[in-house]
């Protein structure tokens, strides 16, 4: 698998990713940058985009989705709770080809095995996405902190429950954590020192 990091536009600088399988099929996670940025990387890798995985529906995580879907035919995956079609949650249900099912689930693209865990709190439809030794957390978990809950759809009690679940995921401490913003970290580091995962934040 090849992992490509693409930074979204300033000032929010969302962390977004392309994961490319050995067979040349790719998944975009939270494509917030211009669609052409991803298309250029796909061309360089000789890869075809098959899926777009969204950790949640906020505007700063979905900016490239509609054009990528139009130009590649990739299937868009998002919890429909975050498909509201407004300023904060711009995607509409008709753009979601494969909603994340209720509860936790699994998804495969060639040898890539994805685990989807629902983590409401920052938004109603938030998820974190595991693939091998990597965990893509969107705005649920940051290095040393967690997502805010004072925006539309935020729920502090739900986020506390979600973070408790993330702390107990059946993943080793060396799992690489890729938050939606700012620096990357490891799950072990966050388990040891992040007050949000230690139940000390709220």
Task: Tell me what the structure shows.
The chain has 202 residues and is α+β, with helices and mostly antiparallel strands. It has one domain (2-193): Ribonuclease Z/Hydroxyacylglutathione hydrolase-like (Metallo-beta-lactamase, Chain A, 4-Layer Sandwich), CATH 3.60.15. The chain contains 4 helices and 13 strands. The protein has helices spanning 35-45, 65-72, 156-167, 187-193, and strands at residues 2-7, 15-20, 25-29, 48-53, 75-77, 105-109, 112-118, 127-131, 134-138, 141-142, 145-146, 176-179, 185-186. The N and C termini lie far apart (38 Å). The model has no long low-confidence stretch (mean pLDDT 96).
CATH class type: Alpha Beta
Helix count, per DSSP?
A: 4
Helical fraction equals: 10-25%
Helices and strands, in order, run as EEEHEHEEEEEEEHEEH
pLDDT averaged residue by residue: 96
Low-confidence stretches: none
User: How many beta-strand elements?
Assistant: 13
Taking all Cα atoms into account, the compactness measure Rg is: 16 Å
Strand content: 25-35%
The biggest beta sheet reads:
6 strands, mixed
Task: Using the alpha-carbon principal axes, give the shape.
Answer: globular
Domains, number: 1
Quickly give the structural class.
alpha+beta
Query: How widely separated are the two ends?
Result: 38 Å
Q: Any idea what the CATH superfamily is called?
A: Ribonuclease Z/Hydroxyacylglutathione hydrolase-like
CATH level-3 fold name: Metallo-beta-lactamase, Chain A
CATH architecture: 4-Layer Sandwich
Neighbour order of strands in the largest sheet: 6-7-8-9-12-13
